[in-house]
């Protein structure tokens, strides 16, 4: 996997890699999913989650969790990533959020919705800030859906 934010590496080398080395290059564009190839990043997570639902085997659920963690790690840690230094906590937290959302999508979404775009839609919806009136002090405070969810716990 090569991260290519501008598309230069794909444009310059995909044809060469395909013609001379018999690679099959894919594009996964998280900003504009319609330009991506039809590869589902959650394929293995979905496969083992389905097996877990059918059999109840904890081994299958553990594999689904493992592949969710690997997928999240791949998304967060790009080529040349130095570990985050003093900000390593935030990278690990982002990885955990993505992995848990992947598992949520894989376990509870319908077959046609179990893909990476659903994961990012859920995360975006949770982080959108909306003005909410506070019952205690009658003022308007901006809150996101994640904060509301945490209040329920």
Summarize the structure in words.
It is a single chain. With 153 residues, this protein is mainly α. It folds into 2 domains: 1-39, no CATH class; 40-127, no CATH class. 57% of the residues lie in helices and 7% in strands.
Helix content: 55-70%
Structural class assignment: mainly alpha
When the domains are counted, the total is: 2
Q: What would you report as the Rg, rounded to the nearest angstrom?
A: 19 Å
Strand order of the largest sheet: 1-2
Distance between the termini: 38 Å
Mean pLDDT: 85
Low-confidence stretches: none
Range of strand content: 5-15%
Shape: globular
Give the biggest beta sheet. Answer: 2 strands, antiparallel
Strand segment count: 2
From N to C, what is the helix and strand string?
HHHHHEEH
Number of helices: 6
What are the main properties of this structure?
153 residues, mainly alpha, 2 domains, two-stranded antiparallel sheet, 6 helices, globular
Topology summary:
Elements: H1 8-21, H2 43-55, H3 58-76, H4 88-108, H5 116-127, E1 129-133, E2 140-144, H6 145-152
In short:
The protein is mostly helical and 153 residues long. The protein has helices at residues 8-21, 43-55, 58-76, 88-108, 116-127, 145-152, and strands at residues 129-133, 140-144. The chain contains six helices and two strands.
């Amino acid at each position: 996997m090569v991260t290519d934010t501008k598309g230069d590496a794909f444009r310059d080398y995909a044809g060469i890699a395909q013609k001379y080395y018999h690679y099959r290059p894919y594009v996964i564009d998280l900003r504009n999913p319609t330009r991506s190839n039809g590869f589902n990043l959650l394929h293995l997570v979905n496969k083992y989650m389905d097996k877990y639902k059918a059999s109840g085997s904890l081994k299958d659920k553990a594999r689904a969790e493992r592949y969710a963690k690997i997928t999240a790690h791949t998304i967060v840690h790009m080529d040349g990533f130095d570990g985050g230094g003093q900000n390593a906590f935030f990278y690990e937290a982002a990885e955990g959020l993505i992995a848990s959302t992947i598992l949520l999508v894989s376990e509870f979404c319908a077959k046609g919705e179990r893909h990476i775009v659903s994961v990012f839609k859920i995360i975006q919806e949770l982080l959108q800030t909306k003005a909410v009136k506070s019952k205690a002090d009658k003022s308007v405070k901006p809150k996101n859906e994640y904060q509301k969810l945490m209040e329920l716990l």
